Amino acid sequence: MAKVFNWQINREMDYWYKGVRPERQFGAIFDINKCIACQTCTVACKTTWTGGRGQEYMFWNNVESKPYGFYPMMWDVKILDMLGTKEWSGNSYKGKTIFESAPVNERVLGWRPTDFDYAYPNIGEDEVSKSVESGAFFTGKHAAWMFYLARICNHCTYPGCLASCPRAAIYKRKEDGIVLVNQQNCRGYQECVKACPYKKVFYNAVEGVSQKCIACYPLVEKGGQPRRFLSCIGKIRMQGWISTPDKVREDNPLDYLVHIRKAAVPLLPQLGLEPNVYYIPPIHVADEFLFQLFGPNAKKAVETYLKAREDKTLAGIFTLLGSTQQTVSYFKVIGDTVAGFDDKRKEIVRVPIKEPVVKRVAFDSKLQVGRHNIT
Ligand code: SF4
Ligand code: SF4
Question: Which of 184, 232, 262, 304 is the most buried (most CB within 10 A)?
Fold first, then answer.
């Protein structure tokens, strides 16, 4: 095992390969508070990439209701149980990662789902954290809660799937950090399916190979955002580039949200993969649950998010989510608008930070017409 530095757990850790970071790293922001579980992203991804034989059960993108939704069944509960006690001291993780807890003669701690585990992708949908008694009413505090968690492959910095493959068929592209399975080299041993704690590699029994999210790289290579980002009804998503803490760019929207304002946090950082999808945590959920799912900075991220309406830069970035089909590499607040720029610093989008509201009278005396929709 090599020693690598994982900034999300603020320490060195063991990994199967020496850490070589890509020239730049594909990353994403998901604002959980805006997701309505319409599953448009799921369908967009399904119809684009997994319509083939052997792929029927695959959802490279899925959206599950927490706390009782899972795909596959209990994916997070199982790996957290296997990992055991998870202790943090401030921002430093003191417990073991899935690489450091690997059983003898194995590279990664993991488990392989059965057909049954994949059979109910909508299980727990819209179920709240506890039963609501008859006659209960809203008290201003959410005693019972639920939220929608959209999930894709995290294109991890230290992928469990890549570490586990005995044929080195999984690789991380040096130009963008996207993690892919080489279909020619794969022999279908399914070690990656077992090792990915997020369960985002799938076995295709017809083809005899493992398959996974490719981050729509043909689009990303052309400066566009992936399909399920473009189709998102709630405009919860933004794809971009995430830097390490020592190379933060203040005009990079992802760096600004993750590193500077710490408003977005990774999913299960304690597992040790340095996942590259960052979530704005839900504002109404028990602190303990958020801590377990998003690590020690989740509560602070919620507090920062709640103040965004008084903060032009923060509000500006949130306005950029879902505002363009292209990748926003740079952003700038200009007066009451926010502008996004591509890699060559060409302006690709500009939106008002505060949407103007136009009120129209119900009866227009000039045109002598009545209007039903007056906002
Ligand atoms: S989320 Fe899973 S499949 Fe994706 S890179 Fe990480 S370990 Fe591999
Ligand atoms: S399309 Fe957007 S809003 Fe709809 S479920 Fe997917 S992430 Fe959520």
Answer: 232
Which of ligand 2's atoms lies nearest the C-alpha of 44? 1
Any domain includes 69: yes
**Any domain includes 249:** no
Supply the pTM of this predicted model. Answer: 0.94
| CB 152 less than 6 A from any atom of ligand 1 | no
The CATH code of the domain that includes 162 is: 3.30.70.20
User: Tens of pLDDT along 268-294?
Assistant: 999 999 999 999 999 999 999 999 999
Q: Is residue 208 situated within a structural domain?
A: yes
Residue 305, H or E segment: helix 298-306
Ligand 1 centre and the CA of 315: distance in Å? Answer: 31
**Pocket lining: 32 vs ligand 2, CB cutoff 6 Å:** no
DSSP 131: P
Structural domain of 164: 2-27+34-216
Verify whether ligand 2 is closer than 6 Å to residue 43 (CB atom): no
Which ligand is nearest to the Cα of residue 234, counting in written order? 2
* CA dihedral over 218, 182, 151, 7, signed as positive or negative: negative
Contact (CB, 8 A) for 271 and 79: yes
Inside any domain, residue 55: yes
The minimum-distance atom of ligand 1 relative to the CA of 199 is 2
